[in-house]
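Case study.
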Amino acid sequence: MAGMSSKRLQKELVKIQGTLPPGISLVSADNLREWLMDLSIPDNPIYPPTDTYRLRFLFSQSYPIEAPEVTFLPLQSPERKIPLHPHIYTNGIICLDLLDAQGWSPVHNVESICISIQSMLAGNTKAERPPGDAEFVRSNRSRPRDINFLYHDPSV
Amino acid sequence: MPAAFVGDEAAEPVTKTPPSTRKRKLVDSITTSATSQPPATIELPKRKASKTTTASVHDANADAEQAALPATPQTLSSDKPMDSDDDLNSVASSGMLGEAMDDSSVDFDAADSDDDGLEDFQDDESAFESQPKDLRPAKKAFEVDFNVYSPGDIQHQQDRQVEEVATLLEQPAEQTAILLRFMSWNKERLIEQYMDNQEEVLDKAGLGANMSSNPPRLEAIDGFTCDICCEDEPGLQSFAMNCGHRFCVDCYRQYLGQKIREEGEAARIKCPGDGCNKVMDAKSLDLLVTSDLTDRYHELLMRTYVDDKENLKWCPAPNCVYAVECGVKRRDLTRTVPTVNCDCKHAFCFGCTLADHQPCPCALVRKWLKKCEDDSETANWISANTKECPKCGSTIEKNGGCNHMTCRKCRHEFCWMCMGLWSEHGTSWYNCNRFEEKSGTDARDAQASSRKSLERYLHYYNRYANHEQSAKLDKDIFHKTEKKMQLLQSSSGMSWIEVQFLEAASQALQQCRQTLKWTYAFAYYLARNNQTEIFEDNQKDLEMAVENLSEMFEKNTDQLAGLKVDMMDKTSYCMRRRVILLDDTAQRLKEEGWTFNVDLK
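After joint prediction, the assembly is written out as follows.
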């Protein structure tokens, strides 16, 4: 039912255009199915406060029953990098249980996902890529939702 | 500098050629007396289906000879019409199923059974022996007891288990079902742990306490906003399990639809609330979704039931809905090959669910298939074009003209001609005319033995592949058989039942070739001794019988009618040889009397 997901996205949009937590801002939601959000990380020397990161949300017709596809988007201008994190690959794919069918709950929304990712970055202490990053980025052709990540590391 | 080439890659580009196809020639010199009438109708063996609670693998002909029973009409299974010609098929009638389940379904021993499997196994034997001989023929060593269940039977069995435990735990059936599933249907363990720590078990299984006092219902609550769709209109129907996470009915329905239809979840559907572990029970689900989804849900639940239980397996045949119960445990598989016959006529091994591979035990089948995948045709090429490095054993293809080889892998330097150390060649470089060097002879010996083992493998593989191929060809004929039978009916005036011998012959061929095929895999792993010779004799006899029948099968339709008696004889002889071979092999396997050249574990 497309009706349900559109309605819910409309409502979320209205709410998001009102107030958002610091460091999170809406860039565009011209297309209701694709939203762009900007993220900055306070209080973590790994991520300079001047740096901003671009998140792309793709919503399917079954949202919010199904999780949206969320990835970091690199950009030349304004400059948007892929944040350095042991669970974020250089192609922008994020390994986070929240975004997987098992960990997803329809109660989550764009705002709560942004907050989760923000805090995941804020709490990070390792300035590194996931193991096997180069290989994964070179060979991966599947959508994030079809990848079987192993959530083995609850600490970061 | 001459170079040697490690031949792993070089071995690749070998096109697979089918093993030499068996010659199928028509023998014209048949002594057919076309006028001689076939003898009075020979009654085809009928499978007796009464008074037994379990069915076992039988071949109809052998049965018929041993059990001089009047043919009893078969009881039709309740939900599957039985063809009247499936005599070869073992049958458990619907009436018997109930009884059979009484015996077996209570057998809930996954927890404490780790040591009693052997006894089970033998108990079965003795229990069987004690039955009156005239009721059924003695079970052969290669046969196992099994039951075939329809989805309805499984459901019934599952329901009864739930009911039984529900009274014990004083929990409603829906909750008990979740608990049982959580414990993989291990009743004893569930009851024990439940009695020890009720709270913990309930919590871990995704159930809160005191659900019984509060049956699930839909409610419209004032001021409620659904966290999923953000609807808040008054009068919105909503639902919550006792975890208290409340959502509107529409969202719940969508959520369940997604889980069941898209993700194939059933036993572990959780509350949509974030991080909530509460598991959806069948009763709440029925309240929320439409009937097509409920059907799918129960089907999925049934899958998990069969998957969870060690003594139940789904028939692997495409589109088959039956499950088979068999008491053979995993650790018994070194001593028995439990072939079962599903009601859909598919014969498969209960141990590994591959198609029937008697007499070869599962472990050998796995090894053999793996080996065939790796080797077979490639091995032929390697044998013809390569040698192994005398030091590290890497396969090497000579890619240059000179005899001075340097192994890419271990840097060993040797002479391609004599395989001896290159250093021993002294000054006579690039020219091997020496013969007597010790290192060379040793290396050549090693080479020869490696070649020999390859040849040995190919000997067995070729025969294995040949029977596989022939079985396929036989099957093609089987498809033509029906046409032949119709032709025969019209040309010879024989009745339908009188031409059934063709079908029986065709089935016998399939079955025997299947067996023969696996005898070669079996023989490959056998160490040579006196028993091997007996085995090979049996194998030879069966092979001869099969080829004789197969040849006869290809005659022209007009000759077939005259060959009826001969053909029936040969069919029954084939089946008898097969039983002898399987029986002998299985008996020895049970007694652990075979010596294999690999570990069976």
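Observations recorded in class. Residues 1-133 of chain B have pLDDT under 50 and may be disordered. The CA atoms of residues 528 and 595 of chain B lie 8 Å apart. We will return to this complex in the next lecture.
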